[in-house]
């Protein structure tokens, strides 16, 4: 299968590598010049649980020309519209587009650019890191849940599941993936923004005196808004999942901390807490915690001169 990875960061490199090893033709798409040049010159270096080096084609998104059978989206949430514009030439009526971005509301964006029958929405708990341009650190295991947004696309989606499972990506077809997407968004909404604002690891924040109250209020706002949009959510189950995840990742600085504090890059806040705050306003639901967190993250971006 001809598969494009649109957004060849850490997770894109993981999926691209494993799909390549399973015998698929994989092309990486990215706009990071140093990353592109490193992979072109030296191949993609794999470290972590195994050591490897593979030659994978990589180019900028607007340079791709061959029609895709599958595109897996791993770009940053705020870059999704520009990515879809840059790759429109490789999408035809038979192309499946699988969105595995963090955050909420991506289906609303995707439907502006392609028929709903093309769209697969999913969530993954795989992890990966970049040790530098062209170097991906892969460790541990994970899983993926995906769903076709159109019933007419279910058969094609299940074929994609089979292809990805041949690459040991532990994929399941989910009749309703939205609860899993919102549950992961709750993890991001309680950890990413708070740790970025407090310059703390997940463990440092969750062990603070006020963390429990803050986390419970954030989750409650996510659940209220999610249910108002038609997503079935179990608040207690989400609370248990978030606190269990916080223990497992206690020494970790989440991705928003890496973006904002470590690298002074724009964050995905508008697609996590910010999405809940915006939807809350539309639905007449108060979301004071998510709104304040969103405003503070944007203030920090402004202080750092991030655009």
Task: Outline the structure in words.
The structure is a single chain. Helix content is 46%, strand content 16%. The chain has helices at 10-21, 33-42, 80-86, 106-110, 154-166, 178-198, 202-206, 211-228, 235-248, 255-262, 273-283, 288-303, and strands at residues 2-6, 25-29, 44-48, 52-54, 58-59, 70-73, 96-99, 119-124, 129-132, 135-138, 144-148, 171-173. The chain is globular and about 50 Å long.
What is the compact description of this entry?
This protein has 307 residues and is α/β, with parallel strands linked by helices.
Count of helical segments?
12
Rg result: 19 Å
User: What is the SS-derived class?
Assistant: alpha/beta
Q: Give the DSSP E fraction (strand runs of 2 or more residues).
A: 15-25%
- What is the number of beta strands? 12
pLDDT below 50 for ≥5 consecutive residues: which ranges? none
The helix/strand order is EHEHEEEEHEHEEEEHEHHHHHHH
Question: Averaging pLDDT over every residue, what do you get?
Answer: 96
Shape: globular
Helices and strands in order:
Blueprint: E1 2-6, H1 10-21, E2 25-29, H2 33-42, E3 44-48, E4 52-54, E5 58-59, E6 70-73, H3 80-86, E7 96-99, H4 106-110, E8 119-124, E9 129-132, E10 135-138, E11 144-148, H5 154-166, E12 171-173, H6 178-198, H7 202-206, H8 211-228, H9 235-248, H10 255-262, H11 273-283, H12 288-303
Parallel strand pairs: 1-2, 1-6, 2-5, 3-10, 6-7, 7-8, 11-12
Antiparallel strand pairs: 3-4, 8-11, 9-10
């Amino acid at each position: 299968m001809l598969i494009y990875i649109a957004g060849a960061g850490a997770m894109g490199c993981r999926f691209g590598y494993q799909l390549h090893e399973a015998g698929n033709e994989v092309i990486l798409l990215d706009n990071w010049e140093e990353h592109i040049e490193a992979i072109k010159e030296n191949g993609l270096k794999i470290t972590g649980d195994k050591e490897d080096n593979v030659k994978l084609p990589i180019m900028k998104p607007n340079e791709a020309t061959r029609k895709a059978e599958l595109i897996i989206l791993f770009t940053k949430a705020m870059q999704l519209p520009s990515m879809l514009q840059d790759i429109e030439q490789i999408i035809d009526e038979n192309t499946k587009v699988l969105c595995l971005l963090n955050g909420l509301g991506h289906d609303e964006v995707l439907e502006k650019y392609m028929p709903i029958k093309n769209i697969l929405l999913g969530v993954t708990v795989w992890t990966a890191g970049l040790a530098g341009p062209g170097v991906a650190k892969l460790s541990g295991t994970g899983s993926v849940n995906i769903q076709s947004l159109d019933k007419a696309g279910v058969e094609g989606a299940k074929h994609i599941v089979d292809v990805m499972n041949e690459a040991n990506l532990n994929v399941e077809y989910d009749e309703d993936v939205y609860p899993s997407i919102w549950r992961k968004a709750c993890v991001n909404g309680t950890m990413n923004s708070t740790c970025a604002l407090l310059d703390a690891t997940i463990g440092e924040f969750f062990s603070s005196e006020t963390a429990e109250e803050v986390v419970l209020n954030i989750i409650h706002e996510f659940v209220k808004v999610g249910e108002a949009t038609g997503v079935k959510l179990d608040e207690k189950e989400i609370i248990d999942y978030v606190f269990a995840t916080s223990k497992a990742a206690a020494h970790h600085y989440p991705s928003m901390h890496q973006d904002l504090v470590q690298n002074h890059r724009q964050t995905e806040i508008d697609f996590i807490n910010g999405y809940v705050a915006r939807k809350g306003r539309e639905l007449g639901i108060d979301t004071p915690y998510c709104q304040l967190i969103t405003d503070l993250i944007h203030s920090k971006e402004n202080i750092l001169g991030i655009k």
